[in-house]
Design a protein that fits this description.
- By secondary structure, the chain is α/β, with parallel strands linked by helices.
- The chain is about 60% helix and about 5% strand.
- The chain has 43 helices and 13 strands.
- Strand 8 and strand 9 form a beta hairpin.
- The longest helix is centred in the N-terminal third of the chain and has 23 residues, at about 75-95.
- It is elongated and about 140 Å long.
Amino acid sequence: MQTKLEIKSQLPLRDWLFRWRQFNLKLYAKDFNKTLLFVLLAIFSGTTLFEKPLKQFINYFLVNPIISYCEQNQIKVDLMFVALTVAALSYLLYQLSKKIVPTLNSFLFAFTFGSIYILFFRVDKSYIFYNFLLSPLRSFFYTDAFFFSLTIFSFSFKSYLNPLQKPLSQYTLIEDYPSHEKYPDLYGSTNYAATIASHILNTSTDTSFAIGIIGEWGSGKSDFMIRLKYALKKFPENILIDFNPWRVNKADAIVEEFFKTLSKQLSLYNPTVTKTITEYSNRVLQTAKEVSYKLIDTLITKWFGDDDIQKKYEEINTTIKSTGKRIVIFIDDVDRLTGKEVMEVLRIIRNTANFANTFFVIGIDQTYIVNVLRNTKDFSNEEEYLKKVFQLTITLPAFKKEVFISEIKKHLFTSDLSEDEKKNLSDAFSRFTVNMSDPSIWFFPAHNHEYLLESMLDNIRDVKRFCNSFKIVYNLLSKEADLNDLIVLELIRNKSTDLYNAIRSKHLLSFADMGTNKYALEADKWTAFESNLTEKDRSKLKRAVDFLLSDGNYKNQRKFIYPHNFYIYFAYQLFNQISFSEFTETLKKDTDDIVTVFQKWIDEGKEAELFKVVSYLDEFEDAHSFKKIVIVLLRLYKEGSNYFEQVKQWVCILWKFNHKKYFQSDDEQHRQFLLSILADETIDRYVRALLAHLFVHSLIEDTIQGDNLFITQRELQRIIYRLFSDYLDTSPTDPIKTIQFYYLNDYKRVNGYVILYPPAGRRFKRYLLTNPVGFEGYVRLLLRPYQHPYNGKLVLEPWIEQIFPDWHVFEHKMSITTFTDSSMDRLRQIILPYLNPFFASNRTPFEIKNKEDQNFVDNFLQFGRRTY
């Protein structure tokens, strides 16, 4: 059986044609040099204007003394020029086989000189051209072959194929270089960067202005600077410069390279400034090489004259001002530099490039910079010095580690991964990360909800590094090792190489007990090992090691804790959020659009996050905005969700606050607000009735304590009744929801007994007597345990007498009805004899006398009530 590689190697022509289909015509055209067009046009025009003197020059220096004596009419000359032509064609085909083609500039060059050759020499009768003797070539001149070959050899060849693009797969490695266009804003810094950009755009300065982007390694400094650059790039008043000092091989060359970069940009506006910048740079460099940094300003003045170097500075400064633009210089990766190199960069910012309207944006790890400056022993207080250098320091916004698991899945769950593999990976990762559906996250927000995954990965760069290494071991070991232990081992390797190697060498491993075939942690060796760790890392790594050496029943037989599985995990060395701004913008949309966006977030698994963001809302712009979000949450209502509880908090509990803030204490405005919500048909009738019921319940229980509500109990009861009646008209099939809907019709309390709204009872009775499905559903819920735990005693549905004041009507209906469901019909027959005794004894609890019937009822109460 042939492999894909073998088949591909047997089809070179097909591969060659496929590669040529990747030819990028736009890139080919873009590479054209327009300046060359004018140069060649000038050459052609000059040849036309000065044809005679040009020919005289060529005749005098080339034709008469040399070419006129060349051999002619010999087969060997024919063969020489044929060989030259074949060599040129072979050279052309060789270049084309490498998928490189002559540039458009080369074709234009060849066309121009070819035209000159043909128009001014080949057709000129004053010249005698030698023809080939070979019969197939007699119509061609030797000069034709020479000019053709020379043209091909002079061509400039380049590749213009589309960039290499590989589809995402299990074997795709994730690059770490940040890109505004390629990567989503996982750090949530786009808006922050745009705000900083706005401040820069509204600032002009007489001297340079330094902005420090403060953050630890991998915290998103580069990502933030790219997004800041993207925001500034939109405005033509900015000249953006990327300066990378870490690419310069010597510290002494950093200043020189900086001014070369600056000169290249400014020369576009003033070509003469290049010389000035070069002289200024040389003066600064010469001084820097001869004196220490601390004495630079003094010695520049003493040795070279303050007026001279100041004059060069003023010339550069004037040039920058005359551009009418702002220069923004981005310097990243300063934490890769040595102490001397850092000093050179700071010298540029602080002294030598202190020009007007010049902004420096520097990404730094302050702890690192302070340490390397301290090692130079040139500063007494490094922190204070940095404050003098940077007029503005920016700390990066905190980001939620909740995004880690979604990012890992995005990188690992590629299209070539089977559904079973995705499920297994998802189940494994769920043991190490926060479950956002866990209610404790909502109710205990101050608690540290970081699990092993969040604690072992500090930033998005760590996530990518983890995914890259995990992909390799996963493709090697996914069918051999336990996924849980494999994940933890990779987390350990990316967090602490020393710990990974200590486990790999078994340095920290022992056995739990003599004769036990399971690994355990060597306590003394771990104590010695953790003494070299930071306090922050000790608990994290200990948790990871404890998990690795745990014997969870969810692990497979290849778990790491068994010594005979140890080398499986190392064999490959020998032989895998909702922002507040987005939420705020969504709230400005229409109700339908808000519901669509919220539902999309819910479908993406962000429901817990959505509820947290919603719960942060405490004030709204106006009554209309308030009403929109209330309607949205009511439309999203589902059993077990927290949306209705939030609406209850806003609309019912905080009604006094709303009454003043949104309705100016106007009862009618507040009343119309509630009525419009209760009349909104996009909201389920039951949900609307439930909201009205809360107000009725408050009025009945007198929880408002003497305050007059903006709406009356009677009006609300009528609304609930109307909604209930309309609901019954739809012939509902859910008996539980139907009976719960009926219970919302609160009316009053008499001696602690709840009286439901009488019209609702009459309407429900009419529905039950005329709707077989509804009646069967009611009978299904008729029997109720008298107490909990259930002791065999039963009562009937508590409000049956309010539905059927004459209970004999219900008894008659039961006696003449036959249910198609045999279980339900048997239940009907069991209940029927107990109706008369139950009502005659003033609703005294009863027990089923027949043992077989009692067993049936017991099973029905446990398993059959919700079967509909």
